[in-house]
Design brief:
Elements: E1 2-7, H1 18-24, E2 28-33, H2 50-63, E3 69-74, H3 76-87, E4 92-98, H4 106-114, H5 118-124, H6 126-135, H7 141-157, E5 172-178, H8 186-195, E6 200-204, H9 216-227
Parallel strand pairs: 1-2, 1-3, 3-4, 4-5, 5-6
Helix pairs in contact: 1-9, 2-3, 4-7, 5-6
Length: 228
């Protein structure tokens, strides 16, 4: 079966993608991985970056003897998949992104970083803080948030993927966006869609940004239709 690697979003982990894996594993050889410092993957002294997470993917593929694969990336995971398609095209057959934020500048990074204040989360949304602690068991979840905030500010200062980078990506790409997503704009998604040669784009109905609230049947249908 065609190998398909699922990539999670920022401060997320592979376990969040299990419903998607279950919906697709009858047709694809599905793999889920944790990025460095997330889920079950150990942390290290490296700063979080899209390039680091791309290296995680390549290392995983090498351990599995996998030369090429298709990818589904949620949010930051989609950005990582496009980075791989740009810088390691030999690894990528096709890719699908959902709810990936492409446009970063300093005000946007600062706004997103405010929502990752660990002390405020612990005080105002204790259930979410506890979920983060459980998801990244054995690691300091507050350190994970701090490193993620640093990465966002770095993206704000110097976006890892520039607008001109997309025009040279040759992998087949499907960009998906939820119609109720309040983090990712339709305008930035359309701009990247128009820059990618031969890309496709779709909207998921009744779908906000959080991965737990996606329209799973619609997503699985679109992935199957696109990847074949």
């Amino acid at each position: 079966m065609q190998p398909l690697i699922l990539l999670h979003g920022a401060i997320g982990a592979a376990d969040q993608l299990e419903p998607i894996s279950s919906a697709l594993n009858d047709q694809y050889n599905v793999h889920t991985i944790d990025f460095s410092g997330h889920g079950k993957m150990p942390d290290n002294e490296d700063d979080f970056s899209i390039a680091l997470f791309a290296r995680d993917v390549i290392a995983y593929m090498e351990t599995k003897g996998m030369e090429r694969a298709s990818f589904f990336g949620y949010s930051m995971g989609g950005y990582v998949a496009l980075y791989l398609a740009k810088h390691h095209p030999e690894k990528v057959d096709s890719l699908v992104t959902l709810a990936s934020k492409f446009h970063w500048d300093e005000p946007i990074a600062a706004s997103e970083a405010k929502m990752l204040d660990a002390d405020k989360l612990e005080a105002k949304v204790p259930a979410f803080a506890q979920a983060l602690q459980q998801r990244h068991e054995g690691k300091d979840w507050k350190r994970l948030l701090r490193k993620t905030v640093d990465m966002l500010h770095s993206l704000g200062r110097d976006n890892t993927l520039k607008p001109e980078d997309y025009s040279s990506i040759q992998a087949r790409c499907l960009l998906l966006l939820g119609d109720r997503d309040k983090m990712v704009t339709l305008e930035e998604t359309v701009a990247v869609y128009r820059s990618l040669p031969g890309a496709a784009m779709g909207m998921l109905p009744n779908t906000p940004h959080p991965i737990e609230q996606i329209n799973l049947p619609a997503l699985a249908f679109m992935i199957r239709q696109f990847l074949g």
